[in-house]
Amino acid sequence: MKIYGINGKTNLIGPRVRDRRIFLHLTQTQLAARLQLDGISLEQKAISRIELGKRVVADYELLALSQVLGVSICWLLGVKESCQPCPGISIPSK
């Protein structure tokens, strides 16, 4: 399967994941451990590849990253407008 990207990157969130992780004084290993506690099996190397834009991020990983890092999905994606749920769409809670 061919993975498409933009400007050599396969995700948009990498730099923001890194910025927020550093802001929270977390190592990549610590972030991976917190994700694993939430049931998301990512190791330090996967976090590194996400931050470098070399790894695709699944939707459930995006949700878990936003929760563990304490930011919105929209912030991770770099959406400038406020992010509001679409009418009739419910967001699953933990």
List the helices and strands and how they pair.
Elements: H1 14-23, H2 28-37, H3 44-51, H4 59-69, H5 73-77
Helix pairs in contact: 2-3
List its salient traits.
5 helices; mainly alpha; 47% helix; 94 residues
What would you note in describing this structure?
This protein has helices at residues 14-23, 28-37, 44-51, 59-69, 73-77. The chain is an all-alpha fold and 94 residues long. Helix 2 (28-37) packs across helix 3. The model has no long low-confidence stretch (mean pLDDT 87).
Order of helices and strands: HHHHH
Strand content: under 5%
Mean pLDDT, to the nearest integer, reads: 87
Low-pLDDT parts are none
Largest sheet: none
Radius of gyration: 13 Å
State the secondary-structure class.
mainly alpha
Give the % helix. 40-55%
Distance between the termini: 32 Å
User: What is the strand tally?
Assistant: 0
Work out the oligomeric state of the chains in this entry: single chain
Note the total helix count: 5
Write down the overall geometry. Answer: globular
